[in-house]
Amino acid sequence: MPDDAASPFLSDRGADFDVVIVGAGVAGLYAIHRLRKMGLRVRAYETGDGVGGTWFWNRYPGCRCDVESLEYSFSFDEDLQQEWEWPERYGTQPEILKYVEHVVERFDLMRDVQLNTRIAAAEFDEDALLWTLTTASGERVTAPVCIMAAGNLSTPRRPDYPGLDAFTGRCYHTGLWPKEGVDFTGLRVGVVGTGSSGVQSIPHIAAQAAELTVFQRTANFILPARNHLHDPEKVRRHKAVYAERRRAAYDTPFGIAGYPPPTKKALEAGAEERHAQYEAKWQEGGSISFLFSYTDLLQDSEANETAAEFVREKIRQTVKDPVTAERLCPDNHPIGTKRLILDTNYFETYNEPHVSLVDLRSTPIETITPRGIRTTDAEFDLDAIVFATGFDAMTGAMLAIDIRVKDGVTLEEQWTGGPRTYLGLMVAGVPNLFMVTGPQSPGVKSQMILSIEMHVDWIAECLERMRRNGQRRIVATAKAQENWVDHVREVAEATLYPQANSWYMGANIPGKPRVFMPYVGGVHTYKKVCDEVVAKGYEGFVLSGEKVGA
Ligand code: NAP
């Protein structure tokens, strides 16, 4: 039974649901729970044949979350967070998927999920104030409100190398890993890509393969994860103040409490002191703690270089072959400006005799042949190729849907020069369509589940107010959007982030507009902005029962 017996939202218009949700990953599932508690009739549509989103698709060997398990979980239910046991510091993909499935069962979410259903189009009718969503098989469903919870890293990308279809061996993408797993025993395997997915899977693939060749375009900064079984006493202490920690997380840049913020600039410390500081963080493991060594690592190139060189030295000390070690040393972007990667035994893997590294910057891939990969200077015979080549991040999933306002704008037109949103929550000219952790919000630069809960709660409170006031339409104004997009850009330009060819910039997808997409002012700042917008009567939005120009 819904907790709130108020009249269903806009049900008098004969819509199929009050709210339709695209995606049944962590965001879509929480949206079902939160909105159902308000008495709304909701349904989530999910492409996969199971729930969990990222944790459903990314089943590659070694896949883990690089945010600690006690943090990377829902906070909305105290009993849930007290009862769930995370065995290790970082959750593995199977553990996280098990957790998500537990949440689904515990809160009976499945009855409002339709699996195996890809949403192909969404059209808003301004007269009826209704969204019509059309599935890939032609089914249509209507609701006054649509929530896009389709994920930021959910559209896997394989490079368009010539000859790919002619390859006679096996081919995989880390983001679309077969459920039954893959046995590489005795095979000659090539892995293309050395981001988080490549770095996590390479040691596991190396443990099985007869020969492993890694094809690297950009060397990345990688820090030790230092995963371990949880100390029960540490868990007890954490859980004793769980709710308090969750609240405190909103006052931090990355949405995670417990990391004391730095107080000093890197160059204010002497070389020895700096080295000791980086060494302590290196031993501790994890990325936030390392980035919190000094206040200016992401603002000042000289400061950044001190941390970058520390990591390069670690690589040189670990990898025995000096040529391979140098290839693995990142040299074309400041540390932290691409997503920092956490590893377990990644660099050590290159000391094994059957593992080799190909530098694609000096010898790019020319073609995939029926037998393997040909670079400009060699041919590699392979039984299997693993593409760990990432995603069309942040905009890929939204733009894969034909989103349009009848007789009005399409999302694609709106975003030709890169995404434009107000707070990463709505798009001007596109009424009654909310995004969870959309572009220009801090989502991907934070503990994702916190950002998801923050957005879904914000949307739910907004809908509650609309219902109370009899309002049927909400849209962001063009002016508010313009100001926010400018602000997001200015905040990014005051940092070193735009210097890297990262997926944050859309740089990994040929032809994608180069725009820095996340908001890097921090969760703490962003939360204040969102709260203020509400306190000022939804400033920057037009809420109305009438059709209004945005
Ligand atoms: P990614 O970070 O985008 O890395 C893709 C890799 O493939 C890069 O090394 C990239 O090189 C390379 N690549 C792309 N196109 C290529 C081409 N045409 N030829 C050769 N190499 C190419 O993707 P990801 O590793 O899947 O990770 C994406 C994000 O997902 C992460 O940043 C993280 O936010 C999240 N993730 C998190 C975890 C975790 O929590 N531990 C694990 C996996 C993923 P360039 O760098 O030169 O583009």
What does this structure look like?
There is one protein chain. The protein has helices at residues 26-36, 54-57, 78-83, 93-106, 196-208, 232-240, 242-249, 271-284, 288-291, 301-318, 322-328, 346-349, 396-399, 411-414, 448-469, 478-493, 523-535, and strands spanning 19-22, 42-45, 64-68, 90-92, 113-114, 119-125, 130-135, 140-143, 145-148, 170-173, 188-192, 211-216, 222-224, 341-343, 355-359, 365-369, 372-375, 379-381, 384-387, 402-405, 433-435, 473-476, 541-544. With 550 residues, the protein is α/β, with parallel strands linked by helices. The protein folds into two domains: 4-155 and 393-544, FAD/NAD(P)-binding domain, CATH 3.50.50; 164-387, no CATH class. The strands form seven sheets. It has a five-stranded parallel sheet with strand order 5-2-1-9-21, covered by helices on one side. It has a five-stranded parallel sheet with strand order 10-19-11-12-15, with helices on one face. A four-stranded mixed sheet has the order 8-7-6-20, with no helix packed on it. Helix 1 (26-36) runs parallel beside helix 15 (448-469), helix 10 packs antiparallel against helix 11 and helix 15 (448-469) packs parallel to helix 17. The chain is globular, with a radius of gyration of 24 Å. Residues 1-8 and 546-550 have low confidence and may be disordered. The site of NADP nicotinamide-adenine-dinucleotide phosphate has 24 residues, from strand 3 and helix 5.
